[in-house]
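pinned: reference chain
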Amino acid sequence: MALINIDTAIKRAIQMLRKLSPPQGLEILTYKRNRGVTILKQEEDLFAVRERGYEENEYSVSFNALPKLLKSISKREFPRSRKVRIYQLSSPEEEGQVRKKL
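pinned: its structure tokens
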């Protein structure tokens, strides 16, 4: 997917996650693709969030708590970024897949 403004990325990710079925998810990466957040839908209201970059953390949150968590992670992982990339994952195996290098 193309570069998306960081201000609208969380809102767009929430909209996309609402439409996905349980084994699917999203990956939000920096421009250089060296840091990111992976969100996998485990159940209708349960999401697994993995942070990769400055810190390595894993969370399991409900849909209602997801926007607040993503906002705090984005401030930590994308401090100077103005644009991010969002990729849709069809299965958990696609997580961390090597993307095209710049």
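why pinned: Residues 6-19 form the longest helix (14 residues). The chain has a mean pLDDT of 88.
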